[in-house]
Structure formats: C-alpha cells, structure tokens
Amino acid sequence: MNDNPSIHETAPSAQAAPGGSLRELFGAALKLGLTSFGGPVAHLGYFREEYVKRRQWLDEKSYADLVALCQFLPGPASSQVGISIGMMRAGILGGIVSWIGFTIPSALALAAFAFLTKGSDTGGAGWLHGLLIVSVAVVAQAVWGMARTLAPDRTRGTIAIGTAILTLAWPSAYGQLILIAAAGLLGRLLLPSGDVPERPRIAIRISRTAAILSWIVFFGLLLGLPLWRQASSSAWVAMIDSFYRVGSLVFGGGHVVLPMLQAELVPPGWMTDAQFLAGYGAAQAVPGPLFTLSAYLGAVMNGWPGALVALLAMFLPSFLLVTGSLPLWDAIRSRPNVQSVLKGVNASVVGILLAALYHPVWTSAIRTSYDFCLALAAFGLLMLWKLPPWAVVLFAAAGGALMPLLS
After folding, report:
1. Which residues of 302-337 are buried (b: 16+ CB within 10 A; e: fewer)?
2. Phi and psi for 299 in degrees, rounded to 5?
C-alpha cells in the first residue's frame, strides 16, 4: 500500500461517513468474508473497492490512514482495517459486527475441515500431503515479497538473516520475541528515520478513556495469562494464553503467525507438525483472514468449543489494539524514532518467516524429489502465472493425490 500516493499527501482532517445500520455493516463485511481470496494485501484492495469506491463510507485519504495504522500494529492488518471501519460507522459494536461478517465464513470452513480430517493419516493421504507441500510455495512467496519490501538494503538484510539463524538455533516462542525486540533496538540505532509525512486525522467515536482502558486490558492479559497458566492445570487457560499471546505479538502479517503458533502448539503435543501444516495449507484455499487458522487448530485440540475459544483469543488483541490506538495514533505516528524501530522489527519478521520456511514447513513437507517438483510447480504458478492461492492449493492437493500412482 505504500505506493499509493494518497498516503503521502498532506490533507485536512478526514471525516468518517455518517453512521449506518448494523445490518448494512454486517452485510457488507459478510460479502467480503465470502469473496476475499488472496491474502491480506488482496483483502485491502477488496476493502477499498467496497468501502471507499462503492459505498463511499470514507475517502481515499482516510482509508490510506487506516491502512498505515494497522500495518504498524501487530496482528492481522486486513482484519484490523475492517474492525476500524466498523468502529467509524457504529462505534465498538460496529467493529464487532464487521469482524464477525468478515471472519465467520473462513472460521467455519476451517473448523469443519478439522472434523472432516479427524483421525486421518496425513502421511498416508496423498491430498493432505499435497496441502503440506503447497505450504512450501506459499511461505516461499511470502518470504520473497516481504524481503524485497522490508529488508531491501544491507543493514536490514543482515538483521533478517541473523534473526533466521538465531531462530533456528534457539527454537522457542520467547526467543522469537526477544529477537524482535533486539531488532527494534538495532533499527533505532542503525536505520535512519527520515521525514514522517503529515497525514489526515481519523474521525472515530472512541474516547481517550476507552483507549487507555483498552491498553490496560491488553497488557493485563498479556502479562497475567502466563501467570494464571502457571498457577492452573487447566488446558483451557493454556490454550487461551497461547493464542492470545500469538495474536498480540505477531508482526508482519498473517504468514508470520505460522512459526509462532507452531512453537506454541506442536512441542507441547497438542498436535503434530503434519496436522498443523495441513490446516495451514487449507487456510490458503478459503477467503478471509489467515488468522482463522486458529479455528482449525482449536477444533483439532478441543472440538467446536476449542475452535470458538481459540478464534476469540486470537482476535481479541486486535480489538484492544485498534480501540486503544485509533484515538492516540496522531501523536504516535508523528515521531520519527518510531519509524526506525519499526524498520528493524519488520526486518526481523522476514528472518523469522525465512526460518519457518525451513522448519517446520520444508522439513515436514519435502521428503522426495516428487515433493520438491510439486512445490516448485506451485511456486511458479503463484509467482509467475499469478494464479490465486486457492487454485494453487487445489492443484497441489490433486498432485498429492496422484503421488501414490507415480511412486
């Protein structure tokens, strides 16, 4: 979105469109939830077409401003843009309604997938192994695109490679958080901030008091849930803590959730690498946010109640962060030092995803030369032929189903 000229223009304060009905808001969000294939960048294009051009709920400058804010925050940027627009239309309740409409189609589809594949041997089912293989192509595409944007120079490239090496040498969720923090510090010390362009203000119906309370709840849960987990033997508390922490601390978009969730869920024995990556592959074939992978993972762990709890825990940080940030964003984004820190953080995100491309994605999926050929073909279809991810997923699943016939 950074090549959109409206992001860089100076403009007067932007005003949100007058509030509308919750039914109208839900209908617009549900339409996007059923049709928005292609990942977060594509989602932002769909949002612009529906909310800015077709419905004219906000202008181009206001929309660009929301995108800038949500790309700065951890969590799923496209979902946070949708939540923000809902809040502009109808306050906090509007944000909830917008999120439900955009999220529920893919969440239901992935939870159902977990039940349909329950008890399946992913090593024996060729089409399921095809889903593991397509993950190699999808993550490789994400690494390639993010590296060109977020690590384009020697300093940031070095941060990315160093982060990848240390992530593989120190495989833990807490280690990744420490590496992200260290990269932010290096960004502050080594990367120039440049000028921060003036941006229009966002009209939002959230008070500063509500914003401050949201930050208190966000950090209270982030710090309190691990303590509760240690003091309790409840598997539900452990699940909520894991999904909430990942939802709070994932920078760089949906694909970066892969290594953090894998580190949280596979080593404790809640699922196997094969189950985890099968769900990740399936998530490429459905519309909506990639974070709805949490519904699949929760269903694998604890059925439909697990799907609901994991989904809510994963997205709750996004609500709190958006609510807390919208009224305060003008003050935060005007500081050049924040931009330098963010450059370092984003470079480390590329490194974390690069490490995930090797383990668990490559090590779990690529066993034979046929596997590599199928992954290479899927990568070419994504990068060169520009096929939508869902079509490439179907191709890889079919290729995996044919595997026993060719061996």
Report:
1. beeebbbbbbbbbbbbbbbbbbbbbbebbeebeeee
2. -65, -40
* Spans of the chain, pLDDT less than 50: 1-18, 122-123
**In contact, 355 and 164? CB cutoff 8 Å:** yes
Name residue, tokens 């974070």: 291
State if pTM tops 0.85. no
Give residue-wise pLDDT tens across range 285-325: 888 888 999 999 999 999 999 999 999 999 999 999 999 98
